[in-house]
């Protein structure tokens, strides 16, 4: 069965590093600093319990601009296979798509 996956891309302006920090209740995936154009990807299988991954993205001087959100939720009674969540960090906020539709603005930087 194909694993589910989360993809976080830095589509910020030149020299603007994106800091990505994602975790579930069981897994800390580390802190990753992405240059513009780079992507952080991770894949996993849904649990028969709930599978949730939360991410905090930060950018700007001293990583002052942040957004925290649930990057993936699944499992429980409905187990997903091959589900893809694409998050695109842009200057005006964080955009989301499953890959087929046009990305939509989901979160603004704070």
From TrEMBL:
Record keywords: Secreted, Self-incompatibility, Signal
InterPro entries to which the protein is assigned, alphabetical: Self-incomp_S1
Pfam family, one: Self-incomp_S1
Recorded superkingdom: Eukaryota
Principal subcellular localisation of the protein: secreted
Protein name: S-protein homolog
Record localization: Secreted
Record bears the keyword Secreted: yes
Family: Belongs to the plant self-incompatibility (S1) protein family.
Organism expressing this protein natively: Brassica cretica
């Amino acid at each position: 069965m194909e694993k589910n996956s989360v993809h976080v891309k830095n589509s910020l302006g030149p020299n603007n590093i994106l800091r990505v920090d994602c975790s579930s209740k069981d897994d800390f995936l580390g802190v990753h600093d992405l240059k513009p154009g780079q992507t952080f990807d991770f894949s996993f299988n849904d649990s028969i319990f709930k599978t949730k991954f939360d991410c905090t993205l930060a950018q700007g001087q001293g990583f002052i601009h942040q957004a925290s959100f649930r990057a993936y939720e699944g499992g429980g009674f409905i187990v997903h296979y091959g589900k893809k969540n694409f998050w695109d960090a842009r200057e005006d906020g964080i955009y989301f798509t499953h890959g087929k539709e046009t990305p939509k603005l989901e979160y603004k930087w704070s």
